Amino acid sequence: WLIASVASRARTASRRVGTVDGGLCQLREGRFGVYTVEDGLPHNFVAAVFEDSQRNLWLGSNGGLSFLKEGRITTYPFPQGRPESGSLAEDRAGNVWFSGNGELHQVRNGQFMRWSTAQGLPHEPVRELLGDRAGNLWIGAPGHGLMQMREGRFRTFDKRDGLADDEVTALYEGPAGTVWVGLRNGGGSRF
Hints:
globular; mainly beta; single chain; 191 residues
């Protein structure tokens, strides 16, 4: 299997691995399991794996956004057909955010809401997402740097603000709450 995404939870010793063609592999409480299209996944390419604050597992695949709880898979088809999977995050209110096909979507009460420049999103396309401990949503926009959504308002950070490069490829929050930004041409930056 080729690994596409990894999620882990230290307090339960759970490890989940999304693969390019083998679905979701899960090591939980010493037991190994695999979920594929035969188990209800819409596609075996699982590019994004995310566990929300309620311990629900969300999976972004080429078949849509799936939700795994207690061994059952529910899939929300992507509104515009087959997505190119991106990233998953959760905001302070418990809403899940998904990037796919360069678009940003919020899942609220099981419904998709697309965010675009018409709804105040400063830049499109989007790719990387991170929900931090302070309740901010961080969004990487290829060629446009980094956006932060705090309390419904957006702020953009780019080279003019000290970001080493405007091509964001990864986001990570460290133990002290520092947001680390992986960049295509400039190594990394932190906030």
